[in-house]
Amino acid sequence: MEVKWKGVMPAVTTKFTDNDSLDLEMFRLNIQAQLEAGVHGIILGGTLGEASTLKEEEKGTLIKETVKLAADKVPVIINIAEQRTDDAVQASAKAAEYGAHGLMILPPMRYKATDRETMTYFKTIADSTHLPIMIYNNPVDYGIEVTLEMFEELLECGNIEAVKESTRDVSNVTRIRNKFGDRLKILCGVDTLAMESMLMGADGWVAGLVCAFPRETVAIYELIRSGRLSEARQIYRWFMPLLELDISPQLVQNIKLAEVATGIGTENVRPPRLPLSGAERQRVLKIIDEAMASRPVLPEYKPAYP
User: In the chain, which end has fewer C-beta atoms inside a 10 angstrom radius, N or C?
Assistant: First the structure.
């Protein structure tokens, strides 16, 4: 199916059982909650998905399960974050074989590549696949910035279509739009800047806290889309303490605790990650508990149009 790079695309967590195998029952429950809320795509195998700890067969299982659940209602995107270019090409081919509809690609993270090396890496992957691609631009966490000048060359590859914009500079949305118009779709990748980015013209939101709060997340997007800004702002203000849990090295543990609170996840993480403990666990639980106690009643937000 065609990937329309817009709307809310959850970067879903990977669910594990107490004995560290894939918890497909809970995974299916969460994906179903996302689809019922009205998300516009599903992204697998990112940081939130603990991709670096997943075996190849586990990634394949998750893609195939999600493709089956999505049933061509929304596209399924897989994250590519391999260190070797050959491995990234092979992972892209496997994603297509398993039925994924698109790719989100990170630059190599364990080596601070030059601009030329980064572009060659991206272009080699793009030239190897028919799948559409979203470049993940996150210099804050991953140390490599994909500049506008780099995008100008990368867009020579017809299947590079979108950017997950995580520079944390909202004005970059305007710079991208001024330079490339609609040729490069923009999805905000920072939960705490989502509304601001969409008001400045971003096409959507690759979201984290959506894993626990899918309806609230989609409501914000749809209300903005329909011009109901006051209603969107009210939900966003309630959401902000939770959204700040996404901009933390422990974002996986934080968001999984939130999933427990809403009944669509467990807090099991895969080592070397460990569940939160002590004062930090209590701090996060307090934020979640306060949000649950004041959780807003949502207006009807789903559009009558597709």
Answer: C
Instruction: Provide the residue ranges of all domains of the chain, joining segments of one domain with +.
Output: 7-229
Residues 216, 235 contacting (CB under 8 angstroms): yes
User: Any catalytic annotation for residue 111?
Assistant: no
Distance CA 202, CA 219 (A): 16
Instruction: For tokens 């050959």, name the residue.
Output: 86
**Catalytic residue among 6, 59, 164, 256, which?**
164
Note the pTM of the prediction, 2 decimals: 0.96
Q: Which of 6, 15, 121, 136 is catalytic?
A: 136
**Is 185:158 a contact under the CB 8 Å cutoff?**
no
4 exposure class (CB count in 10 Å sphere: 0-12, 13-18, 19+): middle
Query: How far from 305 is each of 182, 225, 226, 230, CA to CA, in Å?
Result: 21, 12, 11, 21
According to the model, what pLDDT value does residue 305 have?
63
pLDDT in tens, 102-152: 999 999 877 889 999 999 999 999 999 999 999 999 999 989 999 999 999
Q: Show binding-site residues for pyruvate.
A: 206
Q: Which amino acid is located at 20 in the chain? A: D
**Which pLDDT belongs to residue 155?**
98
Superfamily of domain covering 7-229: Aldolase class I (3.20.20.70)
185 is a catalytic site residue? no
